[in-house]
């Protein structure tokens, strides 16, 4: 259904210019601390993993350094797993799920895999609880050449500069109620379009790659996560967020064509997780646990398939 309620910024039907984008930025404010919540946990991993700063956001370089984490004794003969979180900074369990996996389970898998982890790609978005960066750019449509997003460009440069083939990429996300109440309406207004209301999926789902769906791999992720939280059902039309369901809890996107994070490497396996944190059935900790379960399910599948 198309909503007739105008967005408070801009003129209906007209894309935003720089004035409207600046006006939007004034509506944002700091709601939590990247340093206290995230950097402190990254620092606590330094006794077990190699930690490096790979970039910083020019919006405030001192406040928003970007960190990457690698397993020690990196062996290029082992398959390398890339885990990313916080591409959309407001998707909290993506950040803390990645850090929890490193803290609690990663070392048990390092006999078989190398790990490269970027736990919070969008630190400004984390602090302000935003999908966009300060310039109304969505990092997860920006994993392309000459990216308009520093968040995306910096992590791509770091990963590509390591000179390692990525075997599998697991990108940790959330779908929240505010997607429908805040972020999608803002997107429509920014682009001068009418906002089409949609249904927020009630539960966990994954997004695979249309060009390389890896059906059994996605199934393994779903089956492990269902031990922690419920799987999102399809809506009455057989879709999740407007996309046909390929199997329970799985939809596919053309990830490279859309500039999504999982599309910037030529990995053999990829999945984007989508946790639903606004459900009355889950706690914040269970959302983090679901992200860890998704990684665990993916890794156990890859081990069994070798």
Automatic annotation (TrEMBL):
InterPro entries in the record: Peptidase_M14
UniProt domain Peptidase M14: residue ranges: 30-306
Protein family (similarity comment): Belongs to the peptidase M14 family.
Protein name: M14 family metallocarboxypeptidase
Lineage of source species: Bacteria, Pseudomonadati, Pseudomonadota, Gammaproteobacteria, Vibrionales
């Amino acid at each position: 259904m198309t909503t007739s309620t105008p967005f408070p910024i801009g003129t209906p039907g007209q894309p935003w210019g720089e004035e409207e984008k600046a006006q939007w930025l004034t509506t944002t404010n700091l709601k939590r601390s990247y340093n206290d919540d995230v950097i402190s946990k990254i620092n606590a991993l330094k006794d077990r993993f190699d930690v490096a700063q790979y970039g910083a956001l020019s919006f405030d370089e001192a406040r928003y350094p970007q960190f990457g984490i690698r397993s020690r004794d990196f062996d290029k003969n082992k398959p390398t797993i890339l885990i990313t979180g916080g591409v959309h900074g407001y998707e909290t369990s993506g950040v803390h799920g990645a850090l929890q996996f490193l803290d609690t389970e990663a070392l048990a898998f390092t006999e078989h895999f190398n790990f490269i982890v970027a736990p919070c790609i969008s630190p400004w978005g984390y602090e302000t609880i935003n999908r966009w960066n300060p310039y109304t750019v969505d990092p997860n449509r920006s994993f392309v050449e000459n990216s308009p997003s520093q968040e995306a460009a910096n992590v791509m440069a770091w990963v590509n500069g390591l000179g390692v083939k990525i075997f599998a990429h697991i990108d940790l996300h959330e779908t929240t109620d505010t997607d429908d109440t805040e972020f999608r309406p803002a997107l429509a207004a920014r682009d001068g379009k009418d906002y089409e209301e949609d249904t927020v999926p009630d539960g966990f789902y994954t997004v695979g790659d249309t060009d390389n769906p890896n059906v059994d791999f996605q199934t393994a992720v779903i089956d492990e996560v269902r031990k922690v939280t419920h799987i999102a059902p399809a809506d009455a039309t057989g879709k999740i967020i407007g996309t046909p369901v390929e199997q329970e809890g799985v939809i596919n996107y053309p990830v490279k064509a859309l500039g999504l994070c999982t599309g910037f490497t030529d990995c053999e396996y990829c999945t984007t997780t989508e946790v639903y944190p606004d459900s009355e059935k889950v706690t914040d900790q269970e959302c983090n646990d679901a992200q860890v379960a998704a990684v665990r399910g993916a890794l156990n599948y890859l081990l069994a398939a070798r």
